[in-house]
Amino acid sequence: MTQASAALKPPRRRAAAPGWSVPKWAVLGAALVALSACATMSTQEKSAYAQAQQQVHRLEAEPLANQAAGKPLQQARDALANAGQAVKHGHAQDVMYWSYMATRRAQIGEARVSELRTRNQVADATAERARMQLDYQRQRTELAQTQAQQAQERAQNAEQALQQQKQQAQAQQTQQQLAQIRQQAQQQVQQAQQQAQQAQQQAQQSRQQAQQAEQQQRLAAQQAANQQQAAKQQLEALKAKQTSQGMVLTLSGSPLFATGSDTLEPGAVHSLQNVADLMQQHPMMKIRVEGFTDSRGSDRYNDALSMRRAQAVANALKSDGVDPSRLVAIGHGESLPVASNNSAAGRQQNRRVELLFSDTQGRFASAQSGQQLR
Questions:
Q1: What pLDDT is stored for residue 103 in this prediction?
Q2: Interhelix angle for 43-60 vs 24-37, to 10°?
Q3: Of the candidates 356, 191, 347, which has an alpha carbon nearest to the alpha carbon of residue 275?
Q4: Using CA atoms, how far apart are residues 8 and 256, in angstroms rounded to an integer?
Q5: How many CA atoms lie within 13 A of 294 on its CB side?
Q6: Which of 224, 234, 313, 329 is closest to 281 using CA atoms?
Q7: Are 154 and 250 contained in the same domain?
Q8: Same structural domain for residues 283 and 324?
Q9: In a shared domain, residues 263 and 374
């Protein structure tokens, strides 16, 4: 959950307690009842409830959901059931609250599923790479051993040839020829022995190289894991939260922008300087800057204003030394509110900018709104 969502308190009317375990048939029943009450719901309430249904059903369809995100999945189901009851009874505020809670819990569950899937993929890829390297070194070792064996066989053949030549020389009683033959045979034996020794040395070197490659691979994997963990802890220190898209830092409230303005207030400078320092420590990390507005004003005006606000934050990060190629700005207008636009406090929470961080290798969990850094 972001800072904005943490400030959202549940409305007075509730369909059920947040911790209740609601059966799946109850969720489906609530959805059917909700269809009959849609005529009395506003567009925003319908959208929030439909989004919550889609998010929860998508998490339920994940094969790893029960293993990686059992608790968030059950919480998401409970919240969706409560939203369905609120739709049935026409409680607009409850619809928005429980739809938002169902969506957020499902997103947390998807993030945990994605994290488990990524860990499994990294482990599989690491094991496969190690296996291939070991197979390659094993083949080189076997080749060196074969060459050593062949050299030994040539030495034995040379020795046998020497014995045969001795017999022939003795039969012919040619001492001179026998000496020459002995000398040549000795040279051949020495060459064969040298070749065998070289082959053994190559086999030893191959084994050592295989051990070094395996050790370097383990070290590189550990360093990457340590770097990712350090980045996560730094982001958490900046109050960033884990979502299905990755770590998200939400900038909202009066210290960010004045009403209708795209000029950063002085109070936002310190937070952005901390973000710039983090980016300097992790030179491959990237950020997607996403701007949002409240519902006042036309869609066209809010879309343009949210884009200008996102660009203002991106420009501030560039001024603090962040490479522009590591930043992209996106405006969402008044879509995806985190609070009700019916109050000044809710509108202030919706006037925000969210910073979505990649991992330390510059990879995002998934694309959003068709935008992704390359």
A1: 95
A2: 160
A3: 356
A4: 19
A5: 22
A6: 234
A7: no
A8: yes
A9: yes
Looking at residue 12, its pLDDT comes to 46
Dihedral over Cα of 243, 274, 349, 93: its sign? positive
Q: Are strands 327-331 and 246-252 parallel, antiparallel or unpaired?
A: unpaired
Specify the number of domains making up the chain.
2
Do 331 and 366 belong to one domain?
Answer: yes
- Mark which of 227, 254, 274 sits at the end of a domain: 227
Domain that holds residue 208: 137-227
- Average pLDDT (61-87) is 92
Backbone angles phi, psi at 291, to 5 degrees: -100, 150
Identify the domain boundary among 194, 227, 260: 227
Sheet holding 241-243, edge to edge: 241-243, 246-252, 352-357, 287-291, 327-331
**Does the residue 71 lie in any domain?**
no
Residue among 73, 102, 99 at smallest CA distance from 86: 99
Task: Tell me the pLDDT tens digit for each residue of 22-70.
Answer: 455 444 554 454 455 555 678 999 899 999 999 999 999 999 989 988 9
Read off the tokens for 170.
Answer: 């003795």
- Reading the block at residue 99, the tokens are 């739809």
Q: Which residues contact 130 (CB under 8 A, 6 or more apart)?
A: 214, 217
Indicate if 274 and 194 belong to the same structural domain: no
Task: Identify the pLDDT of residue 254.
Answer: 57
Distance CA 149, CA 174 (A): 34
Contact 289, 373 (CB under 8 A): no
Same domain, 292 and 201: no
Is 196 among the domain residues?
yes
Q: What per-residue confidence (pLDDT) applies to 366?
A: 63
> Distance (Å, rounded) from C-alpha 51 to C-alpha 45?
10
Shared-domain flag, residues 349 and 261: yes
Q: Exposed, middle or buried, 244 (CB in 10 Å: 0-12/13-18/19+)?
A: buried
| Same domain, residue pair 366 and 284 | yes
Q: Which two tokens stand for residue 47?
A: 């959208």
**Cβ distance 285 to 358 under 8 Å?**
yes
**Its pTM surpasses 0.85:** no
CB proximity list for 181: less than 8 A, separation 6 or greater: 162, 165, 166, 169
CA distance 32 to 78: 16
First-residue to last-residue Cα distance in the chain: 27
Inside any domain, residue 339: yes
Structure-block tokens of residue 269:
């400078």
Domain contains 324: yes
